[in-house]
Input
Amino acid sequence: MNYPNQIKKEYHKNINYANRGMDLEKMINEANEYYLEKDMALIYKKPTPIGIVKVSYENNQQKIKDAYFATQSTLDYNGLYKGKYVEFDAKNTESKTAFPISNVHKHQILHLRRVIRHGGIVFLIIRIKGLIYLLNGPDFIEFIDHTERKSIPYSFIEEKGYPLEYNYNKGLDYLKIVDLIGGFKNEEN
Output
């Protein structure tokens, strides 16, 4: 931008991608609170396992100054629904055409496979193009096992995924889709 007296200033927008999934997580957390309140399901966000190296004390409170990830985390959420183990992860992409497979780490893919093998319900909740879909874990695994692509096309997510909508009372109500993919009788949530 040019200002009077030939002073030139440039504007640089600082973009922080660290919390771009927080809105999605907030909607999921609201749903989980609703499910708990109504005694429909027990599903919780897992804390990230950290090891603390250095702590300081300020105003009679402990403050972590240095820490590290103690172990690789698996997926963001887990719990029980109608007697079945449920686990899932929330993912965002800025892409309008595809979901990068690299957004799901190798240890998470291994974990998805294990949950499927042991009969649990596992899935991804993906925000793409401003829309939110539930992609069943077996569909995700089938895609990555049968293609060399580094991303999942939006058309695949649109075809195989289940659109989710935000409900003012329930948050991001995903249990009605879990009823479908889990083989439960269609009951009103």
Notes: Residues 19-181 form a domain with the Trna Endonuclease; Chain: A, domain 1 fold (CATH 3.40.1350.10). The chain has one domain: 19-181. DSSP finds five helices and twelve strands in the chain. The first helix runs from residue 22 to 37.
